[in-house]
Specification:
The complex is a heterodimer of chains A (482) and B (250). With 482 residues, chain A is of the alpha/beta class. Chain A is built from 12 helices and 23 strands. In chain A, the strands form 3 sheets. In chain A, strands 5, 6, 8, 10, 11, 13, 15, 16, 18, 20 and 22 form an 11-stranded mixed beta sheet that branches. Chain A has a 10-stranded mixed beta sheet with strand order 4-3-7-9-12-14-17-19-21-23. In chain A, a hairpin with a 2-residue loop joins strand 3 and strand 4. Chain A starts with a helix and ends in a 5-residue tail after the last helix. Chain B has 8 helices and 12 strands. Chain B is α/β, with parallel strands linked by helices and 250 residues long. In chain B, helix 5 runs parallel beside helix 6. Classes of the chains: A alpha/beta (482), B alpha/beta (250).
Chain lengths: 482, 250
């Protein structure tokens, strides 16, 4: 058996592919956080007074809050005064007006990441908003989307151009004081994406955002707000990477989704933040609050995520099922390797009548990684006829990793139907030998088994993302996953 | 085709094969019999390259080259097939997917292109029909929830698809009802050709009623102690193993 774990180990030890640093001039604030920093961020963005006021209130609330300690993760205390809260690529005119004006080195970075920002975007029909460090760099396809009445722009731009929409929805799904990291984000968020799909419009293309942390000692605090008005539909893709650095970097984002009557939002994430090296040095601390509000009747919000990165992941994309007959879905593949830690899962809050939710969580642990699934299914007293199905599977590779499951259920209506299935399995030496005896290499065999394990989630991803996700999984485990 | 000389092998501290020699030529069918713990399965695993078995002495050549130098997957691509005594379940991995990956790994090794999906399906359906297997098996997880008989048929299907030069079937007959046994025998007999060799590891003479061997060997304490033709199997059935052991020791 010793040979088994050695073989697996060598498969697991793959280099992080996105670990390059882009050498461009950045304009960043010195580390530290106080009211002046919040004011300075707001001023840099020429924000109106109401926005600044909103930030300051969040900051004051944050000061009164404590960092949560209930998660099954361990890390040294974060010193919030050692982080810089704003970094923007320096360019002549503050912001590029078109792709041609974007620093070619930046475009090169996106190229390395395989982001379809340029011509490929056109071919793929994907509109991309790329957030580099803290600033939204370019949004493609704006005109075509405008024809359909779709608003897709950076968050900063939305604050200036569409204040009525931002004011109406901002913080209505994730309140400022929702949790410690949400309050911090609300105070210092630097940019992000804003999407509004008008009534009855089916968004003509997939919308996409790529986030990348580049500057050292920088925290990234982006904020995404997507509003799908009555009877509309949008599919949104989010990708994330960061360079390899020895120090840990903080990422505390917020995503708020609002689906009104008969609207549907499909939100897909491929998260590949730098996970740290095989000894656990460096890597992103990912503390993210993602929540969708099925505010209208017959609305639907679907989260699909493939998570291979980050040193620490603390993330629970959730659905508030308020509208009658609304539907929430959560499909997740989380991979942890080496010393990565993840405490992740979802919350489905059934408030309206006949609301339904589905949770499919696939956790893969290798190396010495620890992974926890934490899920809450809550059925409120008025949620007559609520239904939930949860399936929670863990796959272990090697003998030093761990998988933990914390399912919470709070059922306050007797008509609810709740199902929970959980499995834990291991890639065994016998399975690998069997495949190899059929001529399939060990690496391909592990990929095959892992992909088989994740199939249910991959089929929920948009086509081009599914391919990327599969490739990413193969790299992350190089074999010792998929 | 397969030349084993004075092979010694152990698992952990336990020596199992203690100087085994065996020569198998193309076109031949050999049956390896012997009591429990005599080393029959170990022989099969060592030839296939299982990492838990350490070879301490002796040599194994396959088609003239040193087999022990090769990784298990390389041995498979060179044309060695092991029908497992206990085929593992691989949940979530489609049977057809594994079969196609195995076939393509071999084709690539032979310098051939990947098999066309339609061609593959046609071939698989034909082989399954001849083995009396439901085509639905293709879409199930590898051995997932299969009965004992279904697993063994699945091994024979893989063998039929991969068309190995040397097939070693490790107790493929154990736990089979008569219909499954006949299907397995049919599959093996269909593969018999002057270019191929087959080694059957078995406890029982019963299988040999359906697959007639050219040679029968008795394995005891990690060595072949007696070889003969098919009449030896009948004699073993009648008299047990003790007389062979006594004769060998005497």
């Amino acid at each position: 058996m010793a040979t088994e774990s050695e073989n697996l180990e060598s498969l697991v030890n793959r280099r992080y592919e996105h670990g390059f640093i882009t050498d461009i001039a950045t304009d960043s604030f010195p580390p530290g956080l106080d009211e002046n920093v919040v004011r300075a961020i707001s001023a840099r963005k020429n924000e109106p007074e109401w926005m600044l006021e909103w930030r300051l209130q969040a900051y004051r609330q944050w000061l009164e809050m404590a960092e949560p300690e209930w998660a099954h993760i361990h890390y040294p205390k974060i010193n919030y005064n050692e982080i810089s809260y704003f970094a923007a690529p320096k360019s002549d005119d503050d912001r590029p007006k078109s792709l041609d004006e974007v620093d070619p080195k930046l475009l090169e970075t996106y190229d390395k990441l395989g982001i379809p920002l340029h011509e490929r975007a056109r071919l793929a029909g994907v509109a991309v908003d790329a957030v580099f460090d803290s600033v939204s760099v370019a949004t493609t396809f704006k005109d075509k989307l405008a024809d359909a009445g779709v608003i897709f722009c950076s968050f900063s731009e939305a604050v200036i151009e569409h204040p009525e929409l931002v004011k109406k929805y901002l913080g209505t799904v994730v309140p400022r004081r929702d949790n410690y990291f949400a309050a911090l984000n609300s105070a210092v968020f630097s940019d992000g994406s804003f999407v509004y799909i008008p009534k009855g419009v089916r968004c003509p293309m997939e919308l996409s955002t790529y986030f990348r942390i580049n500057a050292a000692n920088t925290g990234q605090f982006e904020r995404t707000l997507i509003v799908a008005d009555e009877g509309s539909y949008v599919s949104y893709l989010e990708g994330c990477t960061a360079p390899m650095r020895d120090e840990n970097q903080l990422h505390a984002a917020i995503v708020e989704l609002v689906a009104l009557d008969d609207a549907e939002i499909k939100y897909s994430t491929v998260q590949n933040w730098y996970p740290g090296d095989e000894n656990g040095v460096g890597g992103i601390y990912n503390f993210v609050t993602k929540r969708g509000d099925c505010r209208g009747a017959n609305s639907k919000i679907s989260w699909t995520q493939v998570e291979t990165g980050s040193a620490i992941t603390w993330k629970y994309p959730s659905c508030l099922l308020r509208g009658e007959n609304s539907v929430g879905e959560f499909y997740s593949v989380a991979v942890t390797n080496n010393l990565q830690q993840a405490d992740t899962g979802t919350k489905m809050i059934h408030i309206g009548r006949n609301t339904r939710s589905t949770i499919v969580s696939k956790g893969i642990s290798a190396g010495r990684a620890q992974q926890s699934y934490r899920g809450l299914v809550r059925v409120m007293p008025q949620a007559e006829g609520a239904r939930n199905h949860t399936q929670c599977d863990s796959l272990l590779i090697g003998k030093d990793c761990g998988a933990h499951t914390f399912p919470y259920m709070e059922i306050k209506n007797p008509s609810a139907k709740i199902e929970h299935e959980a499995t834990t399995s291991k890639i065994s030496a016998n399975q690998l030998f069997y495949c190899r005896q059929r001529g399939i290499s060990e690496e391909d065999a592990v990929n095959m088994i892992v992909n088989g394990f994740c199939k249910e989630v991959f089929k929920e991803l948009p086509m081009e993302f599914a391919v990327e996700a599969q490739a990413l999984l193969n790299v992350s485990l190089e074999g010792a996953v998929g | 085709m397969l030349e084993i000389k004075n092979l010694k092998s152990r698992i952990g501290d336990t020596e199992i094969l203690r100087g085994l020699s065996l020569s198998v030529n193309a076109g031949e069918v050999h049956a390896i019999m012997g009591p429990n713990g005599s080393g029959k399965s170990t022989l099969a695993q060592v030839v296939a390259g299982h990492q838990d078995y350490e070879v301490t002495e002796g040599s194994v050549t396959f088609k003239g080259s040193d087999l022990l130098e090769l990784e298990p997957e390389e041995r498979a691509r060179e044309g060695i097939f092991l029908g497992f005594q206990y085929p593992v379940e691989i949940p979530g991995v489609n049977n057809a997917y594994l079969l196609k990956a195995a076939l393509n790994a071999k084709r690539k090794h032979q310098g051939l292109g990947e098999i066309d999906a339609f061609e593959f399906l046609k071939m698989a359906r034909e082989k399954m029909a001849s083995l009396g297997m439901d085509p639905k098996f293709l879409n199930r997880g590898v051995n997932e929830g299969f009965s004992g008989g279904e697993k063994k048929r699945n091994e024979i299907l893989q063998m039929a698809m991969l068309e190995p030069d040397l097939a070693i079937l490790d107790e493929t007959d154990s736990g089979l009802d008569i219909d499954a046994l006949k299907a397995v025998a049919l599959g093996v007999n269909a593969l018999r050709s002057p270019d191929r060799a087959i080694v059957l590891v078995t406890h029982y003479q019963r299988l040999l009623d359906y697959i007639e061997p050219d040679f029968v060997h008795v394995l005891s304490q990690g060595r072949i102690i007696k070889s003969g033709d098919k009449s030896l199997a009948l004699e073993l059935e009648e008299r047990g193993y003790d007389w062979v052991r006594e004769a060998a020791n005497g």
